[in-house]
Amino acid sequence: MSRKSPNRIAAACIAEALATELAAGAVRHRQEGRTETAEALLQHVRHHRVRAIRLRALAGAEHYRTISALR
Question: Which superkingdom does the taxonomy of this entry point to (predicted)?
Answer without folding.
Answer: Bacteria
